[in-house]
Design a protein that fits this description.
467 residues, alpha/beta, 5-stranded antiparallel sheet, 5-stranded parallel sheet
Length: 467
């Protein structure tokens, strides 16, 4: 039986040999005492030369660029940096001080090779730039009526990017204000992916208490704790196996929950509470937040390694106010959905159109959708117009009333409202397309209809052979 000291040394050697991270242990002077064998391949220095070397010298010679150990010794706290190695690798390093009372005696650093993830991210950034540079929007497989109705150039670029990203397993983080449609876009990414036949599991991270996160994410077996379901319960990761896991409001996770989530994303394996059986959790991750994740990382509220893990393809969804030309399209679609749901055939009066098109909608699509449904159910007849029942709904929010009075749209009839929406969509498509055939494909219409509308509004497309 080895002595306790020898046993601890054997345990440490086993950790260094089998850890997925590259581990380095240095003393209070920055001299390396132990290191994982994998460090040699990442940092480009034989292990026998690595051990015993000064981290200050290695930083000076460009082997550690920068040295995370030196940062900890200087700042006397845990630090996180991105390193560029002599072998051309991109490494994310975290290091932690070890204290003996008030004396700093050791520094333990853990690093992960992020080269492949960062290369994938750069590839998608390049694709995005190429999309922006194109003179005409590429063909889309989306149904504009069922998915994302838009004639806004920026949204068309986002739609095209989503189509390129959807077939891959790259993690996507959706950024944007509350109510811009991140959940709808996450569902769209799943439907267009190779995992579309698998489950789409959605969870709001802000609604999961920290004490329940582990049981929600990993699941549990029968009898794991008081009140557990008789047959146990699979966790979010296990339920998403073969499909997509959508985590909304991911920035609301606590530091402890972030650590547990990172472990699932790295290993793609889970163990239910109360069990020792390891289960596979192969899923595609889509995250969403209305917060600035980079600022959260800088403030120490969001883990740097988790940020890089989920931020392979960031997609920022513009607010509805930045794509006002899409508002008539959304109103038409929502009204059609309401008529279908309630089995009626209601229409909007010209005054109601003017009101809806004149608002700023700070709550974005969610506010527009809820507001329109409120008007719909309060309207007594087939036409949704200002009256005793709907006037209260129209003026319910004083701040929005001010917006309407300050900048109303000069629309007086329903026909004018529709014509204005058509003209804006045609003008947006003209700036992106070279022919009426491309315009018809973009707008979800026929070429003769587009040609007829262009003549109606006195618009022309120079290079169109059909015109």
């Amino acid at each position: 039986m080895p002595s306790p000291d020898n046993l601890q040394a054997l345990e440490l050697d086993a950790v260094l040999a089998h850890s997925h991270d590259h581990v380095v242990i240095a003393d209070q002077h920055g001299r390396i005492l132990k290191a994982s064998e994998s460090c040699a391949g990442v940092y480009g220095l034989p292990l026998q030369e690595f051990i015993g070397a000064s981290t200050y010298d290695l930083e000076h010679n460009g082997v550690l660029s920068p040295s995370i150990t030196v940062r900890v010794l200087e700042q006397r706290r845990a630090c996180h940096v991105m390193q560029a190695t002599l072998t051309g690798r991109s490494v994310m390093a975290s290091a932690y001080p070890v204290w003996d009372g008030d004396r700093l005696v050791r520094v333990v650093s853990l690093s992960k090779d992020m080269t492949d993830i960062r290369s994938l991210q750069r590839e998608y950034e390049l694709l995005h730039r190429q999309l922006i540079a194109r003179e005409a929007a590429p063909a889309t497989a989306l149904d504009p009526d069922a998915d994302i109705p838009t004639c806004n150039p920026r949204m068309r670029e986002i739609v095209s990017l989503l189509e390129r990203v959807a077939p891959t397993d790259a993690s996507v983080v959706l950024l944007g204000e509350t109510g811009v449609g991140k959940t709808r876009i996450a569902g769209l990414l799943h439907r267009l992916s190779q995992r579309s036949n698998g489950p789409f599991v959605e969870a709001n991270c802000g609604a999961i208490p920290d004490t329940l996160f582990e049981s929600e994410m990993f699941g549990y077996v029968a009898g794991a704790f008081s009140g557990a379901a008789r047959n146990g319960k699979p966790g979010l990761a296990e339920r998403a196996h073969g499909g997509t896991l959508f985590l909304d409001e991911i920035a609301e996770l606590s530091a402890q929950a972030q650590t547990k989530l990172l472990r699932v994303l790295q290993d793609r394996r889970v163990t239910r509470l109360g069990s020792t059986d390891v289960r596979t959790a192969d899923f595609r991750l889509i995250a969403a937040t209305n917060r600035n994740l980079e600022a959260q990382v800088a403030e120490g509220r969001f883990r740097l390694d988790l940020y890089h893990r989920i931020n392979v393809v960031p997609v920022t969804i513009p607010a509805l106010a930045e794509r006002a030309e899409d508002i008539p399209l959304f109103i038409q679609r929502m009204l059609h959905q309401l008529n279908t749901r309630y089995g009626q055939d209601k229409t909007l009066a010209p005054e109601t159109w003017s009101y809806l098109l004149g608002r700023s909608w700070p709550g974005n699509l969610r506010e527009l959708e809820n507001y329109l449904e409120r008007l719909y159910v309060l309207a007594a007849g087939p036409t949704i117009s200002p009256g005793p029942t709907t006037s209260a709904a129209l003026d319910a929010e004083a701040g929005q009333k001010t917006d309407r009075e300050a900048a109303p749209r000069p629309l007086h009839t329903l026909r004018e409202a529709v014509e204005t929406a058509e003209r804006e969509c045609l003008q947006a498509a003209l700036s992106r397309c070279r022919s009426t055939y491309e315009m018809a494909h973009m707008l979800g219409s026929s070429q003769p209809t587009v040609f007829r509308k262009l003549r109606k509004y006195g618009l022309a497309i120079d290079t169109d052979p059909a015109a």
